[in-house]
């Protein structure tokens, strides 16, 4: 029998890092196994209010909603939108054709427009390789 979850008052069996599935999933999604704050805006909220209700502003403005491959996703008009792209367009303006948004802070959850820059795909890849090599 597996040991119980390492979180106090949780008797579920451990899965990874000593945490149960619930706490492990919270850690993977939010970086905190105890994360449980609901950042949802009311149903009457505007798209912008719904979006920003899921952002915790510090130096990096971290998206606390859904993630896919480390990047935030936001549901808009029945489709998924990458949060860093939406935030850049809302705060700065349109992304030039053929450009991607690079996270200057290297934090893929960050939606702070001061940390986002439109670059070509080649430049984005070059920067990622340079960051990994550092």
Supply Rg.
18 Å
Helix/strand-derived class? alpha+beta
Please list the strands of the largest sheet in the order they lie side by side.
3-4-5
Q: Which whole number gives the mean pLDDT?
A: 89
Number of helices: 4
Strand content range? 15-25%
Anisotropy-based shape: globular
Q: What is the highest CATH level, the class of the largest domain? A: Alpha Beta
Structural features, described:
- The chain has a three-stranded antiparallel beta sheet. The protein has a two-stranded antiparallel sheet with strand order 1-2. Strands 6-7 form a two-stranded antiparallel ribbon.
- The protein has helices at 21-30, 47-52, 83-91, 121-133, and strands at residues 55-57, 61-63, 67-68, 71-76, 79-82, 100-103, 116-119.
- By secondary structure, the chain is of the alpha+beta class.
- The protein starts with 20 loop residues before the first helix and ends with a helix.
- The longest helix is centred in the C-terminal third of the chain and has 13 residues, at 121-133.
- The chain folds into two domains: 1-33, no CATH class; 46-133, Homing Intron 3 (I-Ppo) Encoded Endonuclease, Chain A (Alpha-Beta Complex), CATH 3.90.75.
